[in-house]
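Anyone up for a design puzzle?
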């Protein structure tokens, strides 16, 4: 990779992190009245919400957390009433993770806060769709690279 491409990709990563920090900070605003999550809890909650009934091992792998950090995040989310564990009906040794009604309420409120934060910044629906598609592809490719052991 040449220097110009290295610089462009570095700037992209830096901007994604900077935007993420601003968006994450919006959760600390007074209008967000729900209990705050740690970044680890956010990653775990995001996966469980998108994959209800997932196993703990699948969620830990997908979030790329070591088991102790993953377990701590799940315990924290359980304490906050965001996640429930159910024994797998086909294998009592396995546990399935589900978002709770409180998690859905929290997510709806977060959706309103974050949408309001970005409202008026990117107004063209086609541009929003293109940005979402690009970021989704980047996330998918990064997950694939991590699974293959490449960084």
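Challenge accepted. My sequence:
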């Amino acid at each position: 990779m040449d220097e110009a491409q290295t610089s462009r990709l570095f700037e992209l990563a830096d901007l994604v992190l900077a935007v993420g920090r601003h968006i994450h900070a919006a959760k600390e605003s007074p209008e967000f009245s729900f209990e705050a999550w740690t970044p680890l809890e956010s990653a775990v909650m995001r996966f469980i919400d998108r994959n209800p009934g997932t196993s703990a091992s699948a969620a830990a792998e997908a979030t790329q957390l070591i088991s102790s950090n993953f377990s701590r995040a799940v315990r924290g989310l359980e304490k906050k009433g965001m996640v429930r564990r159910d024994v797998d009906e086909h294998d009592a040794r396995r546990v399935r993770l589900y978002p709770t009604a409180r998690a859905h309420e929290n997510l709806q409120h977060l959706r309103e806060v974050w949408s309001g934060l970005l409202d008026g910044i990117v107004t063209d629906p086609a541009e929003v769709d293109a940005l979402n598609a690009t970021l989704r592809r980047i996330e998918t490719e990064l997950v694939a690279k991590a699974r293959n052991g490449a960084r």
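A detail worth pointing out: The beta strands are 54-55, 83-87, 95-99.
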